[in-house]
Amino acid sequence: MDLKLICESISNSRLSASADVPIGWNASPSDPEVCHYGNKDEGLGIDFQVSKLPFVGLQVMDPRLVTIAAGACNEKHRHAHESIFVLISGQGEIIVNKHIIILEEFSVAYVPRWVVHQTRNTSTENPLVLLAITDFGLTSSVLGDYDIKTRLKSGGADAYAIDPIM
Questions:
Q1: Where are the domains of the chain?
Q2: Distance CA 78, CA 76 (A)
């Protein structure tokens, strides 16, 4: 969907209270039906999974659950969308540029567009689960499928792990 269509849709649509759309979600984060992507690289300590929350009709927001295995992390990456992370369970830290944000239950962290970041699970026993709320829908309508170019590639080749601006 392009930006013009999103703007038209927003201005022309109103969700009625009786609309038959999901407004809640209680599925398991490891449910294979909602798994969006993941990555595991033992050499780099990477072991995570991202699950999309199945809300129909979202145009701008893109809520996801990020689950990181005990003692692991996701890859260092950056992307065009903004992200707000809410720690649901576990313990960890988010590295945003050169800042480390310690995560305790229900901590909230913000990652601006194009800023290199990485999340680490500091527990050696329990998974870390984050609710990630992004504006991927809006950003991808402007830039296309940019996300595929900003994630760690299979085998560890990652051209975008180091921010050239830093």
A1: 3-11+46-152
A2: 7
What one-character-per-residue DSSP string does 34-93 give?
Answer: TEEEEEEEGGGTEEEEEEE---TT-SS-EEEEEEE-TT-B---B--SS-EEEEEEES-EE
Q: Are 153 and 119 in contact (CB under 8 A)?
A: no
Q: Which CATH superfamily is domain 3-11+46-152 in?
A: Jelly Rolls (2.60.120.10)
66-114 pLDDT, tens digit each: 999 999 999 888 888 889 999 999 999 999 988 999 998 889 999 998 8
| pLDDT in the model for residue 130 | 94
* β partners of residue 65: 51, 131
Which candidate, 114, 107, 43, places its Cα nearest to that of 83? 114
Asked whether the beta carbons of 87 and 155 are under 8 A apart, the reply is no
Q: Are 47 and 113 in contact (CB under 8 A)?
A: no
Contacts of 58 (CB under 8 A, 6+ apart): 137
- pLDDT for residue 96: 93
Percent of the chain having pLDDT more than 90?
Answer: 36
User: How many residues in the chain?
Assistant: 166
How remote is the C-alpha of 96 from its chain's centroid? 14
